[in-house]
Amino acid sequence: MKIYTKTGDKGTTKLVDGSCVEKFNPRVEAYGCVDELNSSLGAVRSALQQTFLQNENSTSNLSPSLFEELNQHLEIIQNQLFCVGSLLATADLDVFHKLTPITDQQILQLENWIDHYNEPLPALKNFILPGGDLVASFLHISRTACRRAERRSSEIYTAEKHYQNVLIYLNRLSDLLFTLARWVNFKKDQTETIWKKENV
Prior knowledge:
- The chain is 62% helix and 3% strand.
- The protein has helices at 26-54, 64-88, 93-96, 104-118, 134-159, 164-187, and strands at 12-14, 20-22.
- β1 and β2 (20-22) form a beta hairpin.
- α1 runs antiparallel to α2 and α5 (134-159) packs antiparallel against α6.
- The termini are far apart.
- The mean pLDDT is 89.
């Protein structure tokens, strides 16, 4: 497989359905943001692995079973994001319906995970600053990348309502990533930093 094809040297790229668009096309921007999100989740998993190995013999509350559960959930999400990207990279409706969809069940799965990881957390009564444990910080970065992907995808959804589940999925995923960041800090005994309005 040749890595460089030179087909994009004039500022255009091909979509999944074979159509050619400019690289600044909103559709390209949308699936590019999803690709960035997927890459950032890869960094989260790498940081999680390193953190777990470093603390394997410590008193961390992130046990092997909890680590593996979180890692598996993130891997599932990364695979699903490939489907999201493919759908966004398709302008032809017939081709769209032949691709692997984002289903109501997958959205429900995200909601169930949000409830699962949120259950042990203290009630959130204030805005918090992103940060804390390194893995939690990476999760916050992924959350903001997900919000950007959602904003870009909403531009497509405005004209093409069959992208509704894509938009809902990204919305729920950003909520899950926020919850996961809090959960990791909770499990690593990291105190959340409250936003202090008086410092503004």
